[in-house]
Amino acid sequence: MDDLRSGTATAAQLQDLLVHHEDVLEFLQHLARLSSSSLSSRGMVYCGITLQRSRELTFTVASSDSTALEMDEMQYAFDDGPCLHALRVHEPVHVPDTSRDERWPEYLKHVVAQGVNTMYAVPLDLEGHSRAALNLYSRSPGVFDEEFQRVARTYAAEASLALRLAVRMSQRATTVEDLQAVLQSRTDIDLAIGIIMGQNRCTQHEAFETLKRASNSRNLKLKVLAGEMVARLNGAPSETHFQPS
After folding, report:
1. Most-buried pick from 201, 222, 226, 228 (CB within 10 A)?
2. Could you tell me which InterPro entries the record lists for this protein (predicted)?
3. 50-54, 124-128, 178-182, 218-222: lowest mean pLDDT where?
């Protein structure tokens, strides 16, 4: 247990991130990587950070790696899952064994196929109406035990404070511009999934899998391929209507 406590990021490390990364999204990206490395003392932990500005606007603003990003993106495609539930009820959500949990069967079927064994989502406290969560994934069984959860909640509280300070320090115009870019990627992916569903008369899950396979085969990021599909059909890039709160 001492290894877990000593391995977590301290308030000083989080403050150091603030000093060196005044841009909010740059700070969040480094926070995701720091969270992953700090909480991986017993087994590799992948970390995604979800931001919800309204019921309709939920997206991953940072991830430690492609595994966390894919787990988050698939959750948004189903519009339900551990991290979204954690945001909605503002309580931590633990999935001790993804192959046995029955709360989100379709989503967890995909998670199991990717070799992710356990999940833990912890809400982050923000100001105003926005919500955020730290989404933790691991392929190692039993990593997220009670001691880990306690440490992760403490860490999330410190990260929440650092994030609130980062938001205050950031210029509003830059923040809105960066969030607009993230939301644009989310819009393109959702539209591309809709296009595939219409063309192939398939489910949302099947459309996402088709898009992912095409992304892998063409060695293109999912958001890039989705943007190309939308632009090709629309005759122009998609437009995202975004009203910051």
Report:
1. 226
2. ANTAR, CheY-like_superfamily, GAF, GAF-like_dom_sf, GAF_ANTAR, WH-like_DNA-bd_sf
3. 178-182
Extract the tokens encoding 126.
Answer: 């923000």
- For the chain, how long is the longest CA-to-CA vector? 58
Does the pTM surpass 0.85? The reply is: no
The DSSP letter of residue 116 is -
Strand, coil or helix: what is 242?
coil
- Contacts of residue 131, defined as CB under 8 A and 6 or more positions apart, other chains included, come to 51, 52, 87, 90, 123, 124
**Please, what is the Cα angle at 98 between 85 and 137, to 5 degrees?**
70
pLDDT digits (tens, 9 = 90+) for 229-244: 888 887 765 554 444 4
Segment 124-145 mean pLDDT: 89
Element (DSSP H or E) covering residue 127: none
> What is the rounded CA–CA span in Å between residue 141 and residue 191?
36
Cβ contacts of residue 54 below 8 Å, gap of 6+?
129, 245
Helix (H, G, I), strand (E, B), or coil: what is residue 230? helix
189 touches 73 (CB < 8 A): yes
Q: If phi over 0 gives left and psi between -120 and 50 gives alpha, with beta otherwise, what is residue 79?
A: left
The tokens describing 172, both together, are 């509003």
Radius of gyration for the alpha carbons in the chain, expressed in angstroms and rounded: 18
Residue written as token pair 């606007």: 57
